[in-house]
Amino acid sequence: MANTYTAIATVTVGSGGASTVEFTSIPATYTDLLLVFSLRSDRSASSISSSLIVNGSTSSYSSRYIRGDGSSVASYTGASSYFNPGEVPAATATSSTFGNGMVYIPNYAGSTNKSFSFDNVQENNTTGAYQTMGAGLWSNTSAITSIEIGHRDYASGNFVQYSTATLYGIKNS
Amino acid sequence: MTHKLIVDCSTGVTTEVELTAEEVAQREADAVAFAEIKAAEEAAAQAKADAKASAEAKLAALGLTADEIAALS
Hints:
The structure holds 2 protein chains of 2 kinds. By secondary structure, chain A is mostly beta strands. Chain A has no helices and 13 strands. By secondary structure, chain B is an alpha+beta fold. Chain B has 2 helices and 2 strands, in the order ββαα. Chain B has a two-stranded antiparallel sheet. In chain B, a hairpin with a 4-residue loop joins strand 1 and strand 2. Strand 2 (20-24) of chain A pairs parallel with strand 1 of chain B, so a sheet runs across the interface.
């Protein structure tokens, strides 16, 4: 990784699990942000959709993404209340597997609307496993100071122990 | 209780916080919205599959073979 990358903060979920992981007080001293995550949910399903919001906002998101499942691929329109940066394994997926992904946010501290790109794979030792790639926009000119990754598609559920998320700051020089 | 992890990037300190009633309500509202989106996606996919099956049946009625119909898609 280029030496312009700086790990701002990293978190590992403990034994009690966590419904969401939130990075707050993100400094405005970088050019771009990169969120890298490895997650698994305790919900009773083979996979769940992860979610991402910034600055606590649950509006003004738009996105398109493609998702393959091992046999077919389709394109989707994302929700308006959050981004869906991909599927991660849940309770009935192959044990001890995690879904890995990244979200890139250029010019996060600027005064224009904020664009995102993301890709993700759901590790699972079966014929079906999701891969997602997409891009989107948060139509808001505020600087991004917080990022939350969770699973807002569901009213309950936690990320399990050893799930991790790391936020990198990237400078253009 | 459901809780979240908050990482303060200015200090590096991680704290564990219980979700507020408002956050729980928002989460439940998000789940309802997601279910509606899912249902719409599944309905659209089913409609597309039904239209394809109908078109193939009409082509077969016109005398096309299965291989000829498959060659069109």
